[in-house]
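Re: the request from the purification team.
They wanted to know what the chain is likely to look like in 3D before they choose a buffer screen. I agreed to run a prediction and write the result into the notebook, where they can find it.
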Amino acid sequence: MRGETKKRLDIERITAIKRAARVFLTLHGGSGTDDEDLRKAIGAGINIVHINTELRVAWRRGLEHGLAKQPDEVVPYKILPSVVESVKQVVASRLKLFNGEGHFAQRT
């Protein structure tokens, strides 16, 4: 999550699994996966993508930013707006990606 090489997915395998199983598919561990691979995986039949680590990283960075802005503050509600904003930005960007962002994703 800190600029490492992005994970890659086997899209052909996802397509084959979806065709054979004909059930909803969940991609666990989607954090750090190449965005184009995520688009293709959704198009190939992935229905749910878990990105918990991305959210945790955003939470942590937001907290660090809030503490850096107000190093002597001890009141959580005064520090946490940076946390909320950081997580909201990740959620918004992932929702755009997962919903096609102008691309036509195959939904099954």
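For the purification team: The chain has five helices and two strands.
Please add any questions underneath this entry.
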